[in-house]
Amino acid sequence: MSATVHRDEATPHMHLIFLPVVHTVDKKGNPIDKLVCSEFRKAKDSYRQLQDAFYKYMVENGFHL
Ligand SMILES: [Mn+2]
After folding, report:
1. How far is the CA of 17 from the centre of ligand 1 (A)?
2. Against a cut of 0.70, is the pTM above it?
3. Residues with a beta carbon under 5 angstroms from ion ligand 1
């Protein structure tokens, strides 16, 4: 929903506001996108996994983080 880079500290950092959407299928087997917060909080290190996945995605798409 929002991504803002802050340069007000020694290390530039991003404040990210997002909606957790998962790609899944409905009861009939049709592919759907679904808003599911619980999918992102299953494990103790869910946010670490999310940060790692975000980093990997950005680097693979040409950003130098
Ligand atoms: Mn900040």
Report:
1. 13
2. no
3. 6
Number of H helices, E strands in the chain: 1, 4
Q: Is the pLDDT reported for residue 59 higher than 90?
A: yes
Phi, psi of 39 (to 5 degrees): -65, -25
pLDDT tens for residues 5-48? 999 999 999 898 988 888 999 999 999 999 988 766 778 888 88
Cα 25 to Cα 13, 30, 32: the distances in Å are 35, 5, 5
For ligand 1, the distance from its centroid to the CA atom of residue 32, given in whole angstroms, is 34
